[in-house]
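Bumping my old thread because nobody answered last time. Still need a sequence for this structure:
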């Protein structure tokens, strides 16, 4: 769901990161008390659901946590290859089963305590032992040990070529101080090693202050204030009026005009995110594959993409974007009302059918996309009731399986496993739709340990074909990352994984 990994919005909220999108409510732009001439004010669309990095899957939480916590390794902002962070180096044994990490020296947490290998072991064991949101990332891990304060040894049951991405792709894999869950209420408090410390959070904003002893050097700004402004038009107005300095909530229909404007600095890049719709296999008739294929045949993805994102997205039926090595050029569904009706008839399903489609108003594009899909399914005898929810309710109903169908995004995907594994493997941590295909399980499991890149791609291609054909997810489009900031702001870098990092920003 990260989405909206996963994460997001999430999508993938997404995005999923990997986070789901969303969380929070629309408020005025008055702010929540960050203040100060050297504090960056960022307008985001939604409020964090909580601040425990090992539990949350909501992208709005990770927008904040990206600046508060660190991971052992981290994606390079240019090409998303993994590079050093809390681990300054690592080596792998010849058989690929032992990874030895040498930790950075002189790192402290925000409370002044020293970081060492015990904190890494604690953090990873917490995720594994309590089966928290990202425990699936340790599926191959057989041991996490600390032979000395500066060394961490991770052993795996079989070669795991994407281990660095698994432990470093996003702050869901953050390193907490040993005993943090017992010492703090991690839903509302934080103690990280990142460039900013969590100061306060309420219904209007979240405030961070610079950590002067940050191992990477003190930030140039005194802090960051995240303000929640749901409506893109309101966020843009606040930026133009000088009430905020940065936003990722840009109206898609204005992207073209803004690129020529001197009022704001606009940047965009292809993302590693995807938006999708999924149906509940436990709710008939959506457990019937012919019904799902009929719906997939009736949906015009190009029309949905244009309505939701204008020119700032590319329709795609297989999740992984076109500029990736792992892109699979497979698009079996062409919009065809007659063919969709025939599929419903062959399935023996009596129309009309009513389908609730769960979206969140904290991502307005999900509402727009759902309305277009509703209009496309009506001619084949499916009445779509678009249910617009706040994100907290959306997440709760997804967790409870209380839906016919839902739409969101997965954000910040890096490795192909991020796009498919947790969402589609039987009983996967984000397999809320209830999909189970033993052949897909076998392919995804094999791909996760395949060290030859070409062979690995072939395995993911085969799995993707089955997932698409079965309509486990009905993939819609890959959005661009679009962000805007005040002229003169420097040191910020837009990223394909949608990570928001303000440590090097300087205000005009």
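Sorry it took so long. Here it is:
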């Amino acid at each position: 769901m990260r989405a909206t990994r996963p994460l997001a919005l999430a999508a993938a909220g997404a995005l999923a990161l990997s986070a789901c999108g969303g969380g929070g409510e629309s408020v005025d732009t008055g702010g929540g008390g960050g203040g100060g001439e050297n504090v960056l004010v960022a307008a985001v669309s939604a409020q964090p659901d909580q601040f425990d990095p090992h539990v949350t899957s909501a992208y709005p939480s990770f927008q904040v946590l990206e600046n508060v916590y660190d991971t052992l390794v981290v994606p390079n902002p240019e090409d998303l290859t993994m590079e050093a962070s809390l681990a300054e180096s690592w080596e792998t044994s010849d058989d690929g089963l032992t990874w030895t990490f040498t930790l950075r020296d002189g790192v402290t947490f925000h409370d002044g305590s020293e970081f060492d290998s015990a904190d890494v072991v604690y953090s990873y064991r917490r995720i594994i032992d309590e089966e928290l949101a990202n425990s699936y990332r340790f599926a191959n891990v057989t041991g996490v040990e600390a032979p000395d304060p500066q060394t961490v040894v991770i052993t795996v049951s079989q070669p795991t070529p994407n281990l660095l991405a698994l432990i470093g792709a996003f702050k869901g894999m953050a390193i907490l101080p040993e005993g943090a869950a017992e010492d703090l209420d991690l839903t509302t408090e934080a103690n990280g090693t990142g460039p900013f410390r969590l100061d306060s959070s309420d219904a209007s904003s979240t405030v961070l202050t610079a950590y002067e002893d940050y191992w990477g050097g003190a930030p140039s700004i005194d802090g960051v204030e995240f303000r929640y402004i749901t409506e893109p038009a309101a966020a843009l107005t606040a930026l133009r009026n000088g009430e905020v300095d940065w936003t990722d909530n840009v109206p898609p229909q204005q992207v073209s005009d803004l690129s020529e404007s001197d009022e704001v600095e606009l940047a965009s890049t292809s993302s590693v995110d995807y938006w999708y719709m999924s149906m509940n296999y436990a709710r008939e008739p959506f457990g019937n594959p012919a019904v799902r294929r009929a719906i997939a045949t009736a949906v015009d993805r190009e029309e949905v993409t244009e309505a939701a994102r204008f020119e700032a997205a590319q329709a795609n039926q297989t999740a992984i974007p076109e500029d990736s090595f792992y892109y699979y050029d497979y698009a079996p569904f062409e919009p065809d009302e007659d063919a969709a009706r025939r599929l419903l008839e062959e399935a023996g399903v009596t129309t009309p059918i009513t389908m609730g489609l769960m979206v969140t108003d904290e991502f307005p594009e999900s509402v727009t996309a759902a309305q277009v899909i509703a209009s496309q399914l009506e001619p084949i005898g499916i009445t779509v009731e678009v249910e617009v929810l706040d994100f907290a309710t959306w997440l709760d109903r997804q967790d409870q399986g209380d839906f016919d169908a839902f739409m969101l995004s997965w954000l910040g995907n890096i490795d192909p496993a991020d796009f498919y594994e947790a969402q589609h493997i039987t009983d996967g941590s984000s397999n809320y739709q209830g999909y189970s295909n033993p052949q897909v399980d076998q392919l995804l499991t094999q791909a996760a340990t395949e060290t030859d890149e070409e062979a690995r791609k072939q395995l993911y291609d085969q799995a993707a074909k089955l997932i698409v054909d079965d309509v486990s997810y009905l993939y819609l489009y890959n959005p661009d990352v679009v962000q805007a900031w005040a002229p003169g702001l420097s040191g910020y870098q837009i990223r394909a994984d949608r990570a928001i990092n303000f440590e090097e920003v300087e205000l005009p």
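Confidence is low (pLDDT under 50) at residues 1-35. Let me know if any region looks off to you.
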